[in-house]
């Protein structure tokens, strides 16, 4: 299944017009909404929409390098990798022919970061209220797929690599079958694990700026 692998994530040029309100707030009464120029939306109380579609900004383009093969479909997909691992299945990362050489250096047992494009997610929802949370939060404080740029990432373990066939098998994935793949990066413990707290982070910065203090 390759519904997205030969497409480009392109946004058309668009001017962002003043909207009268910086966001559209769900739950505003009809009369108040009309007076404020706020469009009513159906959905959860307290969710906020941007007055424009970030996908139309035209700031950049993406080249999808392949797609993900998973057992998941709309309405039947784990919320995260922990659930995906618990449920199990076959998870394969397929690359397009032009990117085959990029697999060189990957081997079974390595941890990698998959970056993929959640094509069906809304891009104008900036504050969400997930059903499993008592209160809502901004999209940048959540792992939900709805966000201005619907990029998702997963840290997974490589189980097998077949460069000639342009695929690798990984231990789990929490995306729908056919999800476009944007990038693969190695996960490195010495780089990708943050310090334990603000004090340690500050000390690390001090050591970097003044090696004599280290």
TrEMBL record:
From the record, what ranges are coiled-coil?
none
Known SUPFAM superfamilies for this protein? YaeB-like (SSF118196)
Q: Does this UniProt record's set of keywords contain Transmembrane?
A: yes
Looking up Pfam families in the UniProt record yields: TrmO_N
Annotated Gene Ontology MF terms?
A: methyltransferase activity
Span-the-membrane segments of this chain are 98-119
According to the UniProt entry, where is the signal peptide?
none
Report residue spans for region: Disordered.
Answer: 195-214
InterPro entries linked: TrmO-like_N, YaeB-like, YaeB-like_sf, YaeB_N_sf
The family database entries (Gene3D superfamilies) matched by this protein are listed as: YaeB-like
Q: Which domain of life is it from?
A: Bacteria
TsaA-like domain spans which residues? 62-196
One biological process term in Gene Ontology: methylation
Q: Which UniProt keywords apply?
A: Membrane, Methyltransferase, S-adenosyl-L-methionine, Transferase, Transmembrane, Transmembrane helix
Q: Which family does it belong to?
A: Belongs to the tRNA methyltransferase O family.
Query: What protein name is recorded for this chain?
Result: tRNA (N6-threonylcarbamoyladenosine(37)-N6)-methyltransferase TrmO
Q: Lineage in the entry?
A: Bacteria, Pseudomonadati, Pseudomonadota, Alphaproteobacteria, Rhodobacterales
């Amino acid at each position: 299944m390759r519904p997205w692998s030969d497409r480009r994530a392109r946004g058309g040029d668009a001017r962002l017009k003043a909207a009268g309100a910086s966001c559209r707030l769900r739950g505003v009464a009809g009369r108040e909404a009309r007076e404020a120029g706020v469009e009513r939306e159906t959905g959860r109380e307290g969710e906020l929409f941007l007055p424009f579609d970030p996908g139309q900004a035209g700031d950049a383009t993406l080249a999808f390098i392949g797609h993900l093969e998973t057992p998941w479909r709309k309405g039947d997909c784990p919320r995260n990798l922990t659930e995906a691992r618990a449920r199990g299945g076959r998870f394969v990362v397929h690359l397009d022919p032009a990117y085959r050489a990029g697999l060189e250096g990957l081997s079974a047992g390595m941890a990698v970061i998959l970056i993929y494009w959640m094509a069906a997610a809304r891009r104008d929802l900036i504050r969400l209220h997930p059903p499993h949370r008592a209160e809502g939060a901004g999209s940048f404080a959540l792992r939900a797929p709805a966000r201005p740029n619907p990029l998702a990432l997963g840290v997974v373990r490589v189980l097998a690599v077949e460069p000639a066939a342009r695929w690798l098998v990984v231990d789990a994935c929490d995306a729908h079958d056919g999800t476009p793949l944007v990038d693969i990066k190695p996960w490195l413990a010495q780089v990708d694990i943050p310090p334990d707290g603000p004090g340690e982070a500050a000390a690390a910065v001090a050591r970097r700026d003044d090696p004599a203090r280290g």
